[in-house]
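Our preliminary data section would be incomplete without showing what the modeling component actually yields. Below, a chain of 388 amino acids is followed by its predicted structure, encoded as tokens that our downstream tools consume directly.
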Amino acid sequence: MYHLHFGKHPEKGEKKESAAEISTTSVHLLSSGQAAMATMVMESIGRVFISRQQIRQVPRLLTEAAPSMPGTVTDSEVPAYFRERYVSTGYRPLKQNWRYYFLSLFQRHNETLNVWTHLLAFLLLLVKLRQLADTVDFVNDRHSWPLLILVLSSLTYSGFSVLAHLLGGKSELCHHLFYFLDYVGVAQYQYGSAVVHFYYAVDETMHRSMQGLFMPTATIFSCLSCLGCCYGKYCNHTQPCWVRKVCQVVPSALAYMWDNSPVAKRLLLWSNDDLAVAYHFGQVAFFLSCSFFFTFPLLERYLPGRCDFVGQSHQVFHVLLSCCTFCQIHASYLDYVHRRQLYLRLHESGDAALFVGLYVFTLVGCALITAFMLKKVKHVLDFKMKLK
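Predicted structure:
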């Protein structure tokens, strides 16, 4: 009996010990789970911290990628044809390798904002084209081709402007080459403006009187604008500054007045139910404003030394011109949608293809003008080399 009684107590003890062990094991498992979760949280925080650290290292990595990039120089250290009025510092040195000028996109110099203003505009125009392609059938609807010409010409002028301001500082030949391309971009954008205004914004009376004349004349004005700008750049350091401005501004002003005459008449006779008229007002206001800043560099003139990097009139010109372009594209899109019955009645089925052909002719004409003027520049440079 004693043995049996003695044997029962260990069984109870064992049961107590088993319960204690289970409780202890549960605590250990719970602690292990908390530890694992804490470890996961810490790892996530570590990854976020590492990511932030890597982002902070981007400027240093860019610097290490171009350790030998020289700093900027003053206007006295560059030739006269590179100097801008009232801008005395922030010029990039000449005759560096191409890598330097491409990487100078991330360097602080007096062309940085001129590059970035039109680079951002170029990217936004790509987004705008993608949005338009969702609602406009650019392939099968011929009546949408003028709108496509406007968008493509806008992309072209902004892209060529980026190249001119980014790469035009390498040498005198590159300076003329890339700025001549910039003027080609401006000229073909003028044609793009003319074609959407005559196709979508014109009224019946003006169309009847200008049919067969408006677009060929717009082509001629675009080519003359390219020629005037190229010649102004060619004689920049042999003639007074006002000669260059006259060569650039007068042909462009004539082209603008001609190309926008359908819009001007429409604004004079506008009505409240015209959905696009506000954007047409906007494009005219932005263009007149940007023309003022292009012609008169007032900011750097009255704030000498303070606008070498930020605040130049040409930077303001870029921003206002981009705003003008986006207003113009949206106004043309609204006209394309809401004035369809009118332009279907005014334009024959082959007009759109004809205007595309004239656009190609404008591009070819401007390219020939550029090649001719570039040949003259090379002749002058070769003559200078012989004198040395």
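The first helix runs from residue 2 to 56. The chain has 15 helices and no strands. Preliminary results of this kind motivate Aim 1 of the renewal.
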